[in-house]
Prior knowledge:
Elements: E1 25-26, H1 30-34, H2 36-47, E2 50-56, E3 59-64, H3 67-74, H4 80-91, H5 95-111, E4 118-120, H6 122-138, H7 142-157, H8 161-181, H9 187-193, H10 200-214, H11 216-231, H12 246-256, E5 262-266, E6 272-274, E7 277-279, E8 285-288, H13 289-293, H14 322-339, E9 344-345, E10 367-369, H15 378-382
Parallel strand pairs: 1-2, 3-8
Antiparallel strand pairs: 2-3, 4-10, 5-8, 6-7, 9-10
Helix pairs in contact: 4-9, 5-6, 5-14, 6-11, 7-8, 8-10, 10-11, 11-12, 11-14
Amino acid sequence: MTTSARAPGGPAPHGSPTDRGGARIPLYTTEFATDPHRVYREMRDRFGALVPIELAPGVPATLVIDYQIARRILNDPEHSRYRAPTVAALNEVEMFPLHGMVEQIAFPLINSFCATGTAELIGEYAFPLTFQVVNSMLGCPADIGQRAAEAMAAIFDGSDTGEADAMLVAALADLTALRHDEPGDDITSRLLRHPAGLDDIEMISQLVSFYGAGIEPLQNLIVNTLRMLLTDDRFAGGLLGGSLTTRAALDEVLFTDPPLANMCTTFPRQPILIDGVWLPAHQPVVISMAACNNDPAVNIGVYLDNSAHLSWSIGPHACPARSVAYLVAQDAIDQLVDALPEMRLAYGAEELSWRPGPFHRALTELPVVFPPSPPLNIDEVTRR
């Protein structure tokens, strides 16, 4: 992470942002999960650009909520050795077969509940769909993938992180060993074949990124966008008759309420001066994509065709799986909406609740009702 110039007006204070305004703000509480945007506004009034937070009890960090400072940090070049294999592995993902894969996974899931007239769209649709897509792309058997997904969910919730870390590392070590012995046409095998020559520890680190960004955030992007489609008059009122597209809804969610709200963590190698404050070495600095996107200095309330948000990160830290994530999320939503166009929330939007956790923006459930419909004929639909 690079340093910034010292602010005028004399020496900057040493220490952490706590010197500016008191105790750290916990991001793991139910209060924060219920209304994070209110908390971000209060942070901005109290601390300015850099906020002292706790990611979990006793785990201090600094949260960046200023758009321009976030851009400066995210444009710092790091991890080039690790990024090249990831980009190369993703570049070999073909979009048309991926579209077919999403369809083949989505249709049986929809058929499992379409005749009942009710569904809980996280557990019955969004999670199993993203779980199967990511495992297939990584060449990961379901049993290893289940262990990895459970560990990542615990990490995002901010609970039992030590145990969850160990579970995740063990699962991904097993995946790495499997693809060492049985290589295939999958992302894990491509990472192993890359000229960078990643060792097993580096492989686990790369695979953590795929699972961290591949299941939980993608699941939440699908669910949060479905929530918008079901509750916003511009989209709802007969989902197929809305005035804006699924892609527009995805972009607006990414701007206003991104599923990965706080992430892109860096660790200064030495004390660093930013915005007139010294940040300690080796303490995490976390970018709040949610707060930065909604920074009053840059947010003009226009989201259609606006790609200024930081939800895919930027520069050398930009998400290399952006096109893949868009395709999977849009296809997953479109297949569901096409099959169940009269779907609506089972109860009022104000009754929906959010999972606590410092990193994600995630509903606990998304229950819907709809007129029961016969199962889809998968062969007939795929021939259209």
